[in-house]
Amino acid sequence: MAxxxxxxxxxxxxxxxxxxxxxxxxDPKRQIKGAPPPTYLDGLARESTDKSVAAAALHKGEFCxxxxxxxxxxxxxxxxDGDLEVDAIIDDACDENGANPLIVAxxxxxxxxxxxxxxxxxxxxSMMLTDVRSRKLTSEEVEELxxxxxxxxxxxxxxxxxxxxxxxxxxxxxxxxxxxxKRKPTCIVDAEMA
Length: 194
Fold this sequence. Notes:
It is a single chain. By secondary structure, the protein is mostly beta strands. It has one domain. It contains 2 helices and 11 strands, in the order ββββββββααβββ. The protein has helices at residues 120-124, 139-144, and strands at 4-8, 11-14, 30-31, 45-47, 70-76, 84-90, 101-108, 115-119, 150-159, 172-179, 186-192. The strands form 2 sheets. Strands 3, 4, 5, 6, 7, 8, 9, 10 and 11 form a 9-stranded mixed β-sheet that branches. A two-stranded antiparallel ribbon has the order 1-2. Strand 10 and strand 11 form a beta hairpin. The longest helix has 6 residues, at 139-144. It is globular and about 50 Å long. The two termini are 27 Å apart.
C-alpha cells in the first residue's frame, strides 16, 4: 500500500508521501516495542520496561516535544552494567535551566572509557541522528568534563515523527538520570533534533 512506510519494532510508520493525520497528536503516547536504539547506541542500550525507575518519567511520553505519540525508551548499559557515572562538558553560556551541556557522556563506574550519549552539535544541525555513530571521548574532551560525575542509572527516550524512515530519524531526545540514593530521576538533556 502507498501509505505504508518503514516498519520499526511493533510500529509501521507512514510513507513520507502521506500526510499524517493531525489527530495522531491526541493519541496516547506509546513505546514502540522490539525496536533497536539509534545507531550510535548500538551495544550501549537495552529496551526499557515500565519497571525501570530511571525511565519512569519517560514512559509517560511527556518528553515528546512535538507531541508525536511514538517513542522508544532505553536504559543505558555499558558492558551489561547499568550502574554508571555521567558527566558533561558544559558551555560557559548557561541556558535558562542553569546549564548547557555541549557533550554528555557515561561510563561504568571506575572505568576509563567515556561513551558519548549526547552532543549539542547534533540538535544544532537539525538532521535528527542521521550519520551519528558511537564514539568515546577523546583525552582532550575528558579533561574538559565537569569533574563531579553523577552516579546512578541512565535512561534515554527518543520521539519519532509519523513518517520516520530509519531508526535514526529521531525528532526529540531526552536523557534522565536516577542518582544513587534518590527516588526520582532528573532530566539532564531535553533536545529537539529536527
